[in-house]
């Protein structure tokens, strides 16, 4: 018979899984409490998604039960459920939170991605590392807009070049 505290923890995990569309499991076996608090502080710096980003330790067996009950994905036999596990819940725009954790992993080398579910797809550790290195959605939109704007600007300057050159010649001759 499960205890009331475990039942409550499973229901809390189910609520987190249902409210946050994306999550990543992280191995923190070699991390100290102080280092984990530093990571939490860095994650809190993003004010726009502060309520949806959370980083907390989870018990592997309780997480499996929560996954089964929330009907997310079937990971009962996954080898990632070994050792110390923390769950990072992310909002719909997950790139900033994932980049923050990735930068921390690169600097400190004490955490490791296990796997994650982003936009309904399950990604192993290697794919999460690749996704974290990519530019965010807003950066990609800005680059796309700049690339669209640049040819138009060149065209306008090319069409105005002869007229501008004529004005300079006439101005110089007039003086």
Automatic annotation (TrEMBL):
<comment type="function">
    <text>Forms part of the ribosomal stalk, playing a central role in the interaction of the ribosome with GTP-bound translation factors.</text>
</comment>
<keyword id="KW-0694">RNA-binding</keyword>
<dbReference type="InterPro" id="IPR022973">
    <property type="entry name" value="Ribosomal_uL10_bac"/>
</dbReference>
<dbReference type="GO" id="GO:1990904">
    <property type="term" value="C:ribonucleoprotein complex"/>
</dbReference>
<comment type="subunit">
    <text>Part of the ribosomal stalk of the 50S ribosomal subunit. The N-terminus interacts with L11 and the large rRNA to form the base of the stalk. The C-terminus forms an elongated spine to which L12 dimers bind in a sequential fashion forming a multimeric L10(L12)X complex.</text>
</comment>
<protein>
    <recommendedName>
        <fullName>Large ribosomal subunit protein uL10</fullName>
    </recommendedName>
</protein>
<keyword id="KW-0687">Ribonucleoprotein</keyword>
<dbReference type="Pfam" id="PF00466">
    <property type="entry name" value="Ribosomal_L10"/>
</dbReference>
<keyword id="KW-0699">rRNA-binding</keyword>
<dbReference type="GO" id="GO:0005840">
    <property type="term" value="C:ribosome"/>
</dbReference>
<comment type="similarity">
    <text>Belongs to the universal ribosomal protein uL10 family.</text>
</comment>
<dbReference type="InterPro" id="IPR043141">
    <property type="entry name" value="Ribosomal_uL10-like_sf"/>
</dbReference>
<dbReference type="InterPro" id="IPR001790">
    <property type="entry name" value="Ribosomal_uL10"/>
</dbReference>
<dbReference type="GO" id="GO:0070180">
    <property type="term" value="F:large ribosomal subunit rRNA binding"/>
</dbReference>
<dbReference type="InterPro" id="IPR047865">
    <property type="entry name" value="Ribosomal_uL10_bac_type"/>
</dbReference>
<keyword id="KW-0689">Ribosomal protein</keyword>
<dbReference type="GO" id="GO:0006412">
    <property type="term" value="P:translation"/>
</dbReference>
């Amino acid at each position: 018979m499960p205890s009331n505290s475990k039942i409550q923890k499973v229901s809390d995990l189910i609520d987190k899984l249902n409210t946050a569309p994306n999550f990543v499991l992280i191995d923190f076996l070699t991390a100290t409490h102080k280092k984990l608090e530093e990571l939490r502080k860095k994650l809190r710096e993003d004010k726009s998604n502060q309520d949806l980003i959370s980083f907390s330790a989870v018990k592997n067996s309780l997480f499996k039960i929560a996954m089964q009950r929330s009907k997310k994905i079937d990971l009962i036999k996954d080898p990632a459920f070994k050792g110390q596990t923390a769950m990072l819940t992310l909002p719909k725009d997950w790139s900033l939170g994932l980049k923050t954790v990735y930068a921390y992993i690169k600097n400190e080398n004490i955490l490791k991605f296990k796997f994650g579910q982003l936009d309904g797809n399950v990604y192993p550790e290697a794919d999460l590392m690749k996704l974290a290195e990519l530019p965010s959605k807003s950066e990609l939109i800005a680059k796309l807009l700049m690339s669209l704007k640049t040819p138009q600007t060149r065209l306008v300057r090319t069409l105005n070049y002869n007229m501008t050159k004529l004005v300079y010649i006439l101005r110089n001759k007039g003086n």
